[in-house]
Structures are given as C-alpha cells and as structure tokens.
User: What shape does this take?
Amino acid sequence: MTVVYEDNHVVIVSKNAGEIVQGDKSGDEPLTERVKAYIKEVYAKPGNVFLGVVHRLDRPVSGLVMFARTSKALPRLNEMFRESKVRKTYWAIVKNMPPEPEGTLTHWLVRNEQQNKSYAYDREVPNSKKAVLDYKVIARSDNYFLLEINLHTGRHHQIRCQLAKIGCPIKGDLKYGAARSNPDGSICLHSRSMGFTHPVSRKDVFVEAPVPDDPLWRALETMVTSGGV
Assistant: This one.
C-alpha cells in the first residue's frame, strides 16, 4: 500500500491488487491492520488506533481506499458515501471495444451470495437493484482499451458485471468472462481518483492513485497524458 493523503481525520491509501481491506476467512493480514500500524508508528500513538472503514475494494482491484481516523469523521464519511457525494473515478482495461466510445450503462443487478457474483439484466427483475455508470474510452493499445468510469450507484461487483454484460469483461477477470487470468491474480480495474468535501474542514480534496507497476498500465497512462484516444 501507499499513503496518498492523510490529516487528523482522514487517511487514503492506494492498495495493491491482492490486498484485502478487512479480515476474512483467508486469515491474511488486512489493509486495516497495516494502516493502523502505519499510524501508530508515524504518530507514536499509544494504545489502540482508531480506524473506521467507510467503503471497500474487491481483493483483485487496485487503487484508492479511504478510512476515517476519528469517530467524528466516520459517520460523516459514511453518509457521504451513502449519498454518493464522494466522486470516484475508476480505470478499467478491457479486451473489446464497447459498442460506443462513451455512454451510460443502466442495468438491474441480482447478487448471488453463494457464487459471490452479480448478474445483470436489461430490465427490472425480482430482487434486482438498479445500477448506473458512465464510461468513456480514453486510450487504446493494439490489443486493449482503457475506460474511465464514473459510478452513479454502488452495487456489488457493479463495474465488473456491467462491462461484462456489454461484451467487455475486464482483463484478467475470469469470474466475469475474461479469457485468461493475470499472472498476479489481479484484474485490470483501478480506483484512480477521489474528489470530496472534507467532512470536518469542509475544504475540497482531490487525490489520485498511481497506476499499478505494470508495462500495459504504464503505456496506457502515457497515452492518456499525451492526448488519449
């Protein structure tokens, strides 16, 4: 992980693919414990360190994760996420060109708990939740396309599921139809940036996560900075 923003109330880190945000049955050390250890060391904190989880990223996804450092900030951040007041941008690498270079996707998602997978439908079905995102193709290589994605809703596996539904599974995402996995077990989905009003100071904050240390990611990012598609 890399710390990209911190103050008295908020800490934001860029996690590597494969890191889990909270503990699970795998028993692997979660990001929460690593961030607590970081705060304890840097600020010489005695006793237990407070750290509130306000959102999560899937294990194979990289990029920005925000935590609350105080009990004052935690409920305010929870409310901001619940009301979609945190502007999150994701980057995704896909093999296939979407039907249009940019657009809005609207589906109804049904989550299957046993499979830990969501299924997308073009119309409302029983137990479904509406899912909406905007996407835009911002770079392309010989074999892949880089999409920038803004979420309007926050559903389980939403980006992975909706892109797969339009025939554009994310590179490495076997669960949602990719042809092969990535060597490190990651999928090419990256929480790229966040913009929000600070829950205490009320100042505007914008942070960006560096792309994964991978030749394809770096090449596509260079295309974006040099003019994109």
About this structure: Residues 93 and 133 are 16 Å apart (CA to CA). The longest strand covers residues 129-140.
